[in-house]
Specification:
- α3 crosses α6.
- The chain starts with 13 loop residues before the first helix and ends in a 10-residue tail after the last helix.
- With about 300 residues, the chain is of the alpha/beta class.
- It is built from 13 helices and six strands.
- Helices cover about 50% and strands about 10% of the residues.
- It has a single domain (about 30-300), classed as Aromatic amino acid hydroxylase (Phenylalanine Hydroxylase), CATH 1.10.800.
- The longest helix is centred in the middle third of the chain and has 24 residues, at about 175-195.
């Protein structure tokens, strides 16, 4: 029975403000706080996007939805999701109080833990919100985590973040270190955006022009999942690493430019290439523009304990 009280609505949840004030990042999901309005928001989001998943998503995503027994009629309990997820790929969805600095986020992926938002968007704002919510994180991301090959891609990305922190630690000059690590973080953020968040892939077994969606930002957007495949206004190009790391993006509108990978093997190869480019200096002077790198993200890399193997 959901709580008729204050709820866990994004930007309006006293519980989140309280745990943040206590300095907590990883928390338990206080399921009893979800209001009936929160539950109805989940039901509406799920019902309207399910047909688009069946038409546009990568086959592994739909398989993941079924393997997780992702509920259509209520917000998922993360503990129940994890009972299905962990045996498949070793991953778990781990509740967080909100924003996680970049290095901590990527390092969680390395350890097969996905930082998961527990609030849900306001029912009056179904189509857009500038920050993640549980529908984006659980319905958009987590079904792909049931696939071992895709899960290994996320782990590999976490390893690249660890290498980036080690790379920064070796630079003695302060100004040079700050400039280079900011550029590397920007390159990594762009890579993640145009793959894990907004990636397109050639449909397995289809023609070279037959595309499907594997990026969670698209998979959790009722409007954009169709738009990204069908609209003539979207530029769709084969994935080229040098283009991706130098391409800015903005979060407040449908994406006008997307990149296509051939397969998960192809994506894994591109992450390997990303890491190889780092010591060569090819990530150290990427083009300016979005995303901005805030001080918390910078500090998270500069202060990372890259030689600490606990939990690795």
């Amino acid at each position: 029975m959901s709580n008729p009280g204050e709820g866990l609505t994004t930007t309006k949840a006293p519980f989140i403000e309280q745990v943040r004030s206590e300095g907590k990042t990883f928390i338990e999901q206080p399921y009893e706080l979800y209001s009936e309005e929160n539950q109805e928001t989940w039901r509406r989001l799920y019902a309207r996007i399910r047909p688009s998943w069946e038409h546009y998503s990568h086959p592994q995503f739909l398989e993941g939805v079924e393997k997780l027994a992702l509920p259509a009629d209520h917000i998922p309990h993360l503990d129940e999701i994890n009972k299905f997820l962990q045996p498949l790929s070793g991953f778990s969805a781990r509740a967080v109080a909100g924003y996680v600095p970049a290095y901590q986020f990527f390092d969680s992926l390395r350890m097969r833990a996905f930082p998961t938002t527990i609030t849900i968007r306001d029912g009056k704002l179904l189509d857009y919100l500038p920050e993640p919510d549980i529908f984006h994180d659980v319905a958009g991301h987590v079904p792909m985590h049931t696939d071992r090959q895709f899960a290994d891609v996320l782990v590999r990305f976490g390893e690249v973040a660890r290498a980036a922190a080690g790379f920064a630690a070796e630079i003695k000059d302060h100004d040079e270190r700050m400039q280079k690590i900011e550029s590397v973080i920007k390159a990594m953020a762009r890579f993640f955006w145009f793959t894990i968040e907004f990636g397109l892939m050639r449909r397995p077994g289809g023609s070279s022009k037959d595309l499907c969606v594997y990026g969670s930002g698209l998979l959790s957007s009722h409007g954009e999942i169709e738009y990204c495949i069908e609209s003539p206004r979207v530029q769709r190009y084969p994935f080229k690493l040098e283009w991706v790391i130098n391409q800015y993006f903005e979060i407040d509108h449908y994406q006008p430019l997307l990149f296509i990978v051939d397969s998960f093997d192809h994506l894994f190869e591109q992450i390997d290439e990303l890491e190889r480019w780092m010591p060569e200096g090819r990530l150290c002077n990427v083009s300016p523009g979005e995303p901005a790198v805030n001080q918390d993200d910078l500090d998270s890399f500069l202060n990372a304990q890259v030689h600490d193997t606990a939990g690795a």
